[in-house]
Amino acid sequence: MNRQVDIPGYAKLVDTLANDDKQRTIFLKACLKKLGLRVSESEELIPSLSSLHLTAFNCATLSCLLNSWKGLMANENSGSAELLCENDTFSLRRQAMVPSDQVSNPSDVLKTQDNSTNTEQTRDFSPESDGTSDLNKVAKKIILHEKELPANKETPFFNHHAYYTNLKLYNQGHQDDVQFGQHLLYGEVVTSTSTLLEK
Amino acid sequence: MCRANITVGYGTTNDSVRHCVWSLRRLLSPNYAVSSVMSDALIKEPWTATCALLVIPGGADLGYCQSLNGEGNRRINQYISRGGAYLGFCAGGYYGSKRCEFEVGKGKMEVVGNRELAFFPDICRGLAYPGFVYNSEAGARAVRLQVNKEALPDGQNDLDSQFNSYYNGGGVFVNGEKHANRTIEILASYTEPLRVESGKGSAAIVYCKVGEGGVVLTGPHPELVKQK
C-alpha cells in the first residue's frame, strides 16, 4: 500500500493503519489460532518456500527436457514424478490446466492424470516434531508448464508473458544467441539457486 | 510440510493475492508453506491431503461462483467438514455466507444471490461503508473494530479492545448477534454507523464451526499490512 496513491486523505489512511499494525497482527494471529493453526511467535521473518515454475520459450521443448531427465526419475505415477539430485529432491507436477483428454502430445515420462481415481487421501498435516524444517530435506515442487505460461496471479511478482515477449524481441536482434533464456525456472522464494541448479 | 493455500483465479485481484501471501507468510512460516493455487486446482488436484488452511482473498465473488460452484464448493465443504480451515477476506466473506447482497438497487454494481457454501447462515450485506470502486482505492478507509476477546483463544493479553483495519467494499454479517451460539461467534464488530441494515449486531468478522472444521469470514481486510 502506497502513501503516494493520488486520493485525498490516503496518506492519513496509511498512517492510521500503520499505527495499529501491531494490534492488527495480534488479532489476525488470534483468528489463525482459532482455526487451529500454529502461528509463528518469532520476530524473525522466515519466508516459506514457494513452488518452482518451469517454462520454455517453446512449450514443446519441455517434453525433450523431461526425457533427458528420465534416468533420474523415481516414483512416477499419475501426473507426477520425483527427480532425485545430489542435494535436492524435486517433485514434478504437471500443470493442472488442461483435462487429460485434451493433451495432444503427452510426455511419456509423466503419465496423464487418471481422472477415474477418486479416493480421498487421508489427511495428514503434522509438521516436524520440533517445529523446524531442514530445507535440504524438503522436496522442491516444480510445476511443468507444458501448455500455458503461468497466469499473473500464479506468479504475482513475475510476469512470464512479459518476459517471453521481451525475449522474443531480443532474439530478433541477436540471431547468434537464440539459446539465451529459452528455459526458465522461476520461484518466488527459493533455497540457494546455485545449489538448485548445479546439484 | 502442510500448506496454507491461497486461491487465485477468476475473481481475485492480483493485489489481494499478494497481500494475502505476504501477510500470512509472515505469520505462518516456517510451520506452513504459504502459496497461491489456481482455482482450477481445487477441482482437479488432491489438495485437501496437505492443506491446513484454504484462503479465499478479496476480489469479486461472482468470479468465485463461476469457478467453484458445484464440484469446487462440494470439495471445499467436504474439506472443512472433515477438519479443514477456511479464511475468507471481503469477497471471500460474501462467498462463504448463505446469501450475498451487494449494492442492492445500484444498477450494474448490484450482486445478489444465494451462495452454496453458506458457512455463515445469513446474508453478508454490503457495502458496510460507501464509496467502493472495483480495482481502486477510492473507497478505501480505516474502520474501527471492536474485538470480542471472549471468542478468541486465551493468551491475547496484548490485544486492545479496538483497532483500525483496512476496509474496501466488504459487508456486514447480518443478524450476527442473533446467530451467535456454540457454532457461530462474532470475532469483531464495526463500531461506526453502517450504511446498510445489519439486523441484530454489526458483525464484521465471524467464526463458524462447520463439522470438524472452522471458518473465519471477514468484511474488512485484517490481512492488509501497513507499516511506516
Can you summarize this structure?
Chain A has five helices and six strands, in the order H-H-E-H-E-E-E-E-H-E-H.
What does this structure look like?
The complex is a heterodimer of chains A (199) and B (228). Chain A has 199 residues and is α/β, with parallel strands linked by helices. Chain A has helices spanning 10-19, 21-34, 61-68, 160-173, 193-198, and strands at 52-56, 73-77, 80-84, 89-94, 140-144, 183-187. A 6-stranded mixed beta sheet of chain A has the order 2-3-4-5-1-6, with no helix packed on it. In chain A, β2 (73-77) and β3 form a beta hairpin. Chain B is an alpha/beta fold and 228 residues long. Chain B contains 6 helices and 13 strands. In chain B, β1 (3-8), α1 (14-28) and β2 (33-38) form a beta-alpha-beta unit. The radius of gyration of chain B is 16 Å and the shape is globular. Chains A and B meet through α1 and α2 of A and β1, α1, β2, α2 and β3 of B.
Essential attributes:
heterodimer, A: 199 residues, alpha/beta, 6-stranded mixed sheet, 5 helices, 26% helix, B: 228 residues, 9-stranded mixed sheet, 4-stranded mixed sheet, 13 strands, globular
* N-C termini distance of chain A: 39 Å
Kindly report the average pLDDT value of chain A.
Answer: 72
Rg over alpha carbons of chain B? 16 Å
Overall pLDDT score of chain B: 92
By DSSP (H or I, 4+ residues per run), the number of helices of chain B equals: 6
Question: What are the SSEs and their pairings?
Answer:
The complex is a heterodimer of chains A (199) and B (228).
Chain A: H1 10-19, H2 21-34, E1 52-56, H3 61-68, E2 73-77, E3 80-84, E4 89-94, E5 140-144, H4 160-173, E6 183-187, H5 193-198
Parallel strand pairs in A: 1-5, 4-5
Antiparallel strand pairs in A: 1-6, 2-3, 3-4
Chain B: E1 3-8, H1 14-28, E2 33-38, H2 39-44, E3 51-56, H3 61-68, H4 71-81, E4 85-89, H5 91-95, E5 97-102, E6 111-114, E7 120-126, E8 141-147, E9 162-167, E10 172-173, H6 176-179, E11 184-190, E12 203-210, E13 213-218
Parallel strand pairs in B: 1-2, 1-3, 3-4, 4-13, 5-7
Antiparallel strand pairs in B: 5-6, 7-10, 8-9, 8-11, 11-12, 12-13
